[in-house]
Each structure stands twice: as structure tokens, then as C-alpha cells.
Amino acid sequence: MSEALLSIRDVSLSFKGIKALTAISFDVADGEICALIGPNGAGKSSLLNVINGVYRSDRGELTFAGKALRRPRPRLAARLGIGRTFQNNALFKRLTVLDNVLAGLTRKARASLLEHTFRVGRSASESRHFRELAEDTIAFLEIEAYRDWIVGQLPYGLQKRVELARALVSRPRLLLLDEPMAGMNHDEKQEISRFILDVNRDLKTTIVLIEHDIGVVMGLSDHVVVLDYGRKIGDGSPQEVRDNPDVVTAYLGTVH
Amino acid sequence: MTALAAPAPPETVESPEVLRRWRVGPLAIAGLVLAFYALGFVVHDYWFNAILIPFLIMALAGLGLNLLTGYAGQASLGTGAFMSVGAFATYNVLLRLPDLPLPVSLVIGGLFGALAGVIFGLPSLRIKGFYLTASTLAAQFFLPWLFNQYGWFSNYTTSGSISAPKLVFLGADLSTPLGRYLLTLTSVVILTWLAWNLVTSQVGRNWMAIRDMDTAAAVAGIPIAFNKLASFAISSFIIAIAGALWAFAYLGTVDARSFDLDRSFTVLFIIIIGGMGSIAGAFIGSAFVILVPILISNVSANLFAGAIDAGQSENLQKILFGALIVYFLIKEPNGLYALLLRARRRLALWPLKS
Amino acid sequence: MSFFLETLVGGLLAGVMYSLVAIGFVLIYKASGIFNFAQGSMVLFAALAFVTLREAGWDFVPALLVTLVVMVAGAIAIERFVLRALIGQSDLTLFMATLGLSFVIEGLAQLFMGASVHELNLGIDDIPIEVGPILVSQFDLLAAATAGALVISLSLFFNFTRIGISLRAIADDPLAAQSIGIRLPTLWRIVWGVAGLVALVAGLLWGARQGVQFSLTLVVLKALPVLIIGGFTSIGGAIVGGLLIGASESLAEIYLGDLLGGSVSTWFAYVVALAFLLIRPAGLFGDRAIERV
Q: Its domain of life (chain C) (predicted)?
């Protein structure tokens, strides 16, 4: 195992006194696919929201790429190279597929407002460069046919793919995927799984994903973390987690 | 890479062409601009002040508001106030620094507008949606009051409305109707070009991303606070220049009362009717808002031979505009612009397909 | 000191009227999430209709009843033909739609009933009476009492009846409320009807005080800061916010106005509201939903 890209230490979060996460600690190794599983309301999405600064944790520490994240904010997380997709698609629904993907490149933008306004300096070259990057990612995820569609008009499964493209286009080091296969049929899940494996292997992107389909999780991930009622009850390889009696009673045994 | 083919576009989904932008070549744009310049040399003087100048200035104000509301998604009812900032700031620059060339004075007026926009846009960092109208309404009530209240702004003129200084640029007198038209048209052309650059760049994309979903925009790495304030600044810059032109090139006087809440409403209506989030929309909406009242008063004067008095035709106009607002919001949120797009597509396909 | 008190009391009495208008907004906001900009035009329309009927020789009570019926019918029509078509749109779109509506209502009111100023006499003599050391306008006192009575009965109605409970349920969670059988359109009609009634009372009181004229529509612009201070979802907040704005505005007019050398009432309420937006965006009593992603 290589060293940890992300390490989570003792993270707790509460909403109006209700505990969402209690003293969560684990490491995500560089280059691995880590699955977060657990019943609904276990705090999985909240944990992702803490990692990229959408929520501020009450206690605990995050370390990303060797540096402590003291006050994580969404934009800072993005700048450091943490990409993210959401459980309920959070696309810019009145923009085209291409524009959505291009918007994901902002963390790499260097041209200033004034350069853009007067079309001078880095404006043109950056626009061209961004366009190439976006087209590459669109091709990688095989959504060229929809490049100029307004995303609000696309079916759900394709929207999930566009969201993946938007997160991926800036080549993040860590990608947080919140139920990337929710509501999909078997074939579509296979397809997305292959994309995720490709991203992990070809682009060396570390991935933390939330998924309910245990079969998919076991086949896809190197590392599984199990949450239940905001606490960590299992952490290890898919095999270890499968054999963990706590996990079996709390989750695998009852739900599936 | 996987070898799986992407599924064919599902048939149930509406074709994306409907909302695609109208791609106009640079030649067509250049032709249109030239035509407008040429127009200035052929029309009767009456046309300048009755139609052309107010049309262009209100389109410019609509363009400014559209950047803020249509693109960046921030509501504003303070357009009149930001126009007044431009008018009074430019007036004072012309008065106190008479050696500056006219365009520089206009730009300084615009910069003061941008400053006011940023100040009253600050609450947008904490609040969203129509709550923000309260902040811009504060601007709308406070700023014209300020200019009216303190004589310094109007150089202690007693009547409250002050006549504009002479407009001169490079030795040419721009106070004639044609001069005022050319000044307005040139300002509009330049500012529209800059606005076009912005909205088609990464900046414009970021604004629309924030409009559609701000949390996701932040997660994608878009600086929210900077972009919101930038949209206020640039929008108010353009609106302030529109205000200065309104005072100097159209009214010929600087009067806080001509920048009241009704002015803000009119500009908002321009972008709703013309089309939110499109540059052409501001021009289409402005043409509509300027031409329809003329049409109504002509019709009521000729058809009903004065049976409808001016007050009544004003009421009719109010009802018409109000009803159109509601209609467009319900039926066509992209305004007349989208209707024209659709008509053009039909025409292009005709007679192959109805 | 007694001058200060008189100013304060006068401001508070005006504030009761602000509260009254603001409650009309709170009801509609709670039921449908709309800031109804047309509320001001409804006030004008109600006052104009009543005054027109009175000038045509109608008695007080029939004129009142007919106006009430017209207002409620108009409110229901708005619900049916405009709001239902806009379900699911952003709050900004809904707000702009009510802005359009306000133009239609104002235009209609003036088209059919004229734009001139009408005097409205409710039969209350406006002789100041002495309350302890200070003079208070009798009309203001009665108007405030009427408004107060309406405010109290509305709060009781919406706190203790089935409809009121449904309204709270809708405001909390529209989907859940509908799933347990609360019919949204019915509730909207009721709420818009009540807003019509509130507009009528406000129109009569304001109209009697300053004449029935176009400026009545401007009460909508006073209600917005009241709501920002009180919170958009709280009837109690609307009352407190109204009193706060009324009192501070009339004190500011005297003391701050002297300092600045001019009337500050056009913008003072907005500056207070702006401060609230920056410091406490949910208002004094409003609740703020946590955004879920």
C-alpha cells in the first residue's frame, strides 16, 4: 500500500444537535478505489460534504496530499484537486453538455476578467486549450453525441455521466462520487463501473465512492469503509469487510 | 478506453436545437452595425429622439441588467439608481474636470456605477433570489434621494434639474441630434462587444453556473463571491453609462427623478420580454418597450379619433405589459428572442416540414 | 419628552398598518413561497372599488360586501390562471410574475375607475385626544384597533383551525403535506382570498388617511423591509417588524431628518432592512432551511 492521499481523523459533525458523524477516522491510499457503504442516513454523503468543505465539521482533522486542511471550503478543495459528483444531479441545467464540462475547468483558469473582456492576453489560448481538454473528456466518457444538448433535457443516466465529466475534466487527484450508479439498470452500472476503473487506472485518480449495490462495490473497490448511524463499523479490504460480523449484522445481513 | 457505444439520442427528448443560440456570422453583425450608422444620415431628425436614441440607451441598460440577472442570476430593482449614479458622476466629471475627453468622462461615470453596484451587491454574498431585490431597492430609494438632497451633486442648481454641458469630442460638436445618436450608437457598439466577449468566455460560463446551481459551482472550483461582485460591477458599469447617455444624449438634463423605480421596472421588463440570458434579448425587448407605446397612442388617436385619452392609453399599456410579463414567464421564459429563433427555424425548414 | 413619545406612538400606530399589509404577504409566502408584489395593487384596487361604489350612492355595508366579493374572486382567479401555471419555478420567476400582475391590476383599476384622487370618509372624526401627557390622533387609534383586531383574529384562525395547521404543514414540507391529503390548490385559494380581505381593510384604512390614490400601491414597498426584519414566515414577526419599522421610521424622520436636512422616510426602512440582511438574513423570527446537497 502506498501512503495515504487523504486521511480523516476523528471527524464529527452534527446538525442542530443531531449527530450525523461521530469520530470517524480512516485513510484513503493514493491510487485506490475506496467505497463508502452503509444504510440510508448512515452519514455517507455528509462525510463527502465534510471532505470537500460543503459542511464544516465540529471536530476532527483532514489531511490531503500531506497537507492539513484547516478550513476546507468547496473552492479550496477544488483547487487542491478534489473533484465531486452529487447524489441528486447538480448540473448547470440550462447550459449545454460542453459548457458544463468547461465550467469544471475553472480551477485551472489563469486568464483574468479583463483579459476575457478585451479578448487579449491569455484569453484566446486558454479558451482553445480548455476546449481541447473538454472535448477529450467528453470523448473519454462517450458523450460526444450530446455535446450541444442542454443538460436539463438529457435522461438521468446521461446526466450522471455529464456530471462525472465535469468533475473529471480538471484531472483531480481525488474524485468523490456520490452514488454514481443510482437508479441505473444492470448494463448501465457495468458501463459506469468500467468508466470508473478506466479513470482510476489510466488517469491514476484516487476515488472515494458511495454505492448501495454490494455486488458492484465488491467488484470495483480496493478498500471498503462501512458507516452506520454516523459511526465507522468496518474498514478493510472487500473480503475483510464481508467477513466482519458487525458489518454483517448491521448492514449486509439485514438489507441484502 | 471502453468500446461501448453511446446510446442513440432518445426520441422522446426535445431536440436541443430549440434553445441553441442563433449563430450569426461576423459579417452579418458588421452589416447590422453599418446599417445603424447609415440610418443616422438618412432619417428625419424626429426619429432620433422619438425612437432611435431611447431604443439604444434602454437596450444598453437592458444589456447591463441581463448580465446580472439573466446570466449571473442576481435579481435587481436598482437599475434606475445605478443609471442615476452614472448620470451624476459623469456630470460632475464634465463640470469639474472639463479637460478630460468625453469618453474618459463616461468611463469614469461607469466606474462610479460599478462601485455603487459592488456596495449594494455585497448582500448577495449572504442572500439569494428575490431577497436581494431588497438590497437593490435600498439603492433605488437612497441614491436618487442623495443626489436630489445635496446640492453639491447638481452644482447647486436651484431647479433640481440641470442642463447638460455641451458634448464635444475631438473638436466635433455632438449636441446635434445626429451627434447624440452617433455618440450613443458608438457607446452601445463598444459595450455590447465587450459584453459579448465576457458572456462567451469562461467568466460568462461561471456566472451561468452560479445562476443554475451555486453549491455545485463552488464545488467545481468557481469563486462565488468574486463572480457575484464582478457581475454587479460590470452590470452597473454598463447601466451607469446608459444613465449618463440618458441624461446627456437623450433628455439633455440631469434629473434624479428620471431614474425612479419605474425606470428599474422598465429595464426589467425589457429583459423578461426580450429574453433573459441573451444579448439580443435586450435589444429586442427595448425595441418592443419603445415601439409599443408609440403604436398604442397612434392607434388610439387614429382609430378611435381621440375617444381614448392619453391617461387611458397609458393604462392599456400597463395592462398589456403586465399581461405580457406573466405570459412570457409562463409560456416562454426565454422571451421574444426564443420566439424569433423558433420562427426562424420553421422558416428554414419550410416547405419541407411544417 | 412628550414630543418624543408622541412621535413614537404615532410611529407605532403607523406600524400597525404596516403589519397589516405585511401579514397578507406572510400568508401567501407561507402557502406558496411567493413574495406577492401585487399586494399593493390589490390594496389600491380594493379602495378604489369601494370608493367608486360609495360615490355611486351605495350604502356602506353593501359596498363593502361587493368589494369583498370582487377581491376574493380576483384573488382566486389569480391563483387559478397564473400561479398554478408557474408551479415549480424559481422564487425569482414567481416574484416577477406578481410584478407583472401588479401592473395588470393597477391598469385595470385606473382604466375602469379613473386615476383621480378620491376622498374616503369612514365616518371617524379625526380629533386628537389626550392620553396622559400626549396627543394621539383618534383616527390612528381606531385604525390601529381595527388592524389589531384583524391581526389577532387572523393569528387565531391560522394557529387553531385545520386550515392554519395545514398551512404550517405546507410551509414545512409541501410534498409531505400533500401526501397526507392536504389539497394545495384549495389552501392557496383560501390564502389568496384572505389576502384579498386584508388588502380591502388596508385599502380602506390607508385610503381614508391619505386619500384613495395611486400611491396606495407603494405600501408594498414598505412591507418588504418589514418582512425582512420580521422574517418571511412568521405572523408574529410581521407584527413586530411593522411596529419596529413604523416607530424607527417616524423617529428617524424627526431626528435623523433634521441632521441630514431632508426627509429620510423614502429609504430609511430599507437601510434598516439592509443591515438585517447582512447581520441576520433570516430576520428576527424567520426560519432558514439548511440546504441539502
A: Bacteria
Judged against a pLDDT cut of 50, whether residue C187 lies above it is answered with yes
- Mutation pick from B17, B192, B202, B235 vs chain A, by most beta carbons of A within 10 Å, is B202
Do strands A59-64 and A67-69 pair parallel, antiparallel, or not at all (unpaired)?
antiparallel
Q: What is the dihedral of CA C195, C197, C199, C200, to 10 degrees?
A: 170
Cβ–Cβ gap A15/C290 under 8 Å:
yes
Q: What is the reported pTM?
A: 0.89
> Could you please report the per-residue DSSP string of C51-119?
HHHHHTT--HHHHHHHHHHHHHHHHHHHIIIIIGGGTT--HHHHHHHHHHHHHHHHHHHHHHH-SS-B-
**Sequence-distant (≥ 6) Cβ neighbours of residue A167 within 8 angstroms:** A83, A84, A85, A104, A175, A177, B220
- The reply to whether C293 touches chain A by the CB within 8 Å rule is yes
Helix, strand, or coil (residue C282): coil
Distance CA C21, CA C122 (A): 19
User: Which residues neighbour A245 within 8 Å (Cβ) at sequence distance 6 or greater?
Assistant: none
Measure in Å the smallest separation between the Cα of B207 and chain A Cα atoms: 10
Q: What is the DSSP string of A108-153?
A: G--S-HHHHHHT-TTHHHHHHHHHHHHHHHHHHTT-GGGTTSBGGG
* Residue C25 placed within a domain: yes
Greater pLDDT, C99 or C232: C99
Q: What is the pLDDT of residue C186?
A: 79
Q: In B, residues 220-239, which contact A (CB 8 Å cutoff)? A: 220-224, 230, 234
Q: Which three cell numbers stand for residue C83?
A: 400561479
Q: Do A106 and B202 touch (CB under 8 A)?
A: yes
Facing residue for B123 by CB, picked from C91, C262, C277: C277
| Sheet (strand A4-15) strand order | A18-29, A4-15, A59-64, A67-69
Answer whether C293 sits within 8 Å of A54, measured CB to CB.
yes
Q: Please determine, for the modelled complex, whether the ipTM score is greater than 0.95.
A: no
B191 touches chain A (CB under 8 A): no
Answer whether residue C158 is part of any domain: yes
Euclidean distance between CA atoms B87 and B247, whole angstroms: 6
Please name each of the domains of chain B with its CATH number. 43-152+163-349 (1.10.3470)
Q: State yes or no: pLDDT of C62 exceeds 90.
A: yes
Torsions phi, psi for A14 (to 5 deg): -140, 150
| Residue A231 CB-half CA count within 13 A | 6
- Architecture of the domain whose range is A1-81+172-256: 3-Layer(aba) Sandwich (3.40)
* Cβ within 8 Å, pair C293-A15: no
pLDDT by residue (tens digit) across B209-241?
999 998 899 999 999 999 999 999 999 999 999
* Chain A with chain B: Cβ pairs closer than 8 A: 130
B216 contacts on C by Cβ (under 8 Å): 293
Chain C residues near any Cβ of chain B (below 8 Å): 35, 82, 85-86, 89-93, 95-97, 99-108, 110-111, 115, 221, 224-225, 228, 260-262, 266-267, 270-271, 273-274, 277-278, 281, 291, 293
What range does the domain containing C10 cover?
A: 2-214
Spell out the domain ranges in chain A. Answer: 1-81+172-256, 92-171
- Grid-cell match 421588463, residue found: B269
* Cβ-nearest to C266 among B131, B145, B315: B145
Terminal-to-terminal C-alpha distance of chain C = 55
Query: What are the φ and ψ backbone dihedral angles of A178, each rounded to 5 degrees?
Result: -95, 100
Mean confidence (pLDDT) of chain B: 85
- Minimum CA–CA partner of A46 in chain C: C293
pLDDT at C114 over 60: yes
- Whether C282 is in a domain gets the answer no
Name A83's bridge partners.
A175
A49 in reach of chain C (CB within 8 A): yes
d(CA C211, CA C214): 9
Q: How many domains is chain C partitioned into structurally?
A: 1
